[in-house]
Write a structure and sequence with these properties.
Chain lengths: 176, 176
DNA sequence: TTGACATAATTAGCTGGCTAATTATAATTC
DNA sequence: GAATTATAATTAGCCAGCTAATTATGTCAA
């Protein structure tokens, strides 16, 4: 997501803000810090999952299925919830089906539809992965108190609201 | 990075933590919230840059060059600082060179080496993009006070330290 | 001075995202 | 009830990452 490893020093930020007076140095600094840490956490999660032969995309599908009453959902619904295109979901399901973790069930009444069901093997896989994931995550967050977590969430809510401000305005550009 | 759009409700988290007692519900919740917001911020940044005909990878390269005294660096150094492989950096430089934003300068003394220089057009591009980026970011962070930013950074530092805990331990897995 | 190793950049080929087009089926409307 | 429109999933092809292999060059020690 953010690959940049060499975050700007105070000196660099000052240099840039001298040329670009619009810059809010502490905003830039916090923003980059956030992206850096989030990106590293995501990589750590990937590393954890890969020890179980999974990647994030497939893992989320298994979790979404487990959330359902009977472990069943539709590709279009899964795509929506997982935040990927339907085409990508087709690929994820292909992979999971190859490994026997989910199965396709063709609908007799509406032959356009296909249901996806978590198999026993899929549930077993989750039963291996989730305790490992939860244990690691618990340790990772151990140093952050409940109060800090609440504060943290509150700030994230504000940032999230600010994204509309980021998206809006500015509409130049042509070439490249 | 994190595509998952359907974050777990309290009920879902409780259901999962009943099956997996290792789960720390508030930790999971904060973790996912962090990844979700960071991911959306990154997408907003992409949207901003694409209005200027850039993508994050190339944009970071321009910025890294601008940080240098004479706007000059080496592909290997840029790859290191940008956090991408050298092969990827070759591709990024190819694209930037095609658009005339950087140029390759072949070293006469050590013919393995190539220097990359920010061109005048590259600097102009930055002079268009950066004010737009800084303005949007300022607005996005406007609701977060300096105190909150400090607090936020402090928590990020703790989380970052916790990543080692996340990476460590657990070493099962075979197939798939 | 030459053989082994080290270093720099690039190329080749893989993967998992994406969008757009396609296939199949259902629903609606004239 | 035939034609149009809508919906579901898939296929085809693009792109930007990656690793591993390759090409080219330099360095050092016997």
């Amino acid at each position: 997501m953010l690959q940049l490893r060499d975050l700007p020093s105070k000196a660099v930020l000052d240099k840039f803000s001298a040329r670009y007076p619009e810059a809010d140095v502490s905003a830039v600094s916090s923003f980059l810090h956030l992206l850096r840490v989030a990106s590293d956490l995501s990589l750590a999660l990937d590393a954890c999952l890969s020890q179980h032969g999974l990647l994030q995309g497939r893992w989320w599908v298994l979790i979404l299925l487990m959330r359902e009453e009977h472990g069943i959902s539709l590709p279009s619904v899964l795509a929506e919830k997982a935040g990927v295109s339907r085409a990508t979901m087709t690929g994820l399901i292909d992979g999971l089906e190859r490994n026997g973790l989910v199965e396709r069930i063709f609908d007799k009444d509406d032959r356009r539809r296909v249901s996806i069901r978590l198999t026993a093997a899929g549930q077993e896989k989750l039963d291996q992965v989730m305790p490992d994931y939860y244990t690691r995550l618990r340790q990772c967050m151990a140093a952050v108190s409940e109060e800090e977590r609440d504060l943290f969430n509150g700030i994230l809510v504000k940032l999230n609201a600010g994204i509309t401000a980021f998206d809006a305005s500015g509409n130049r550009h042509p070439d490249t």
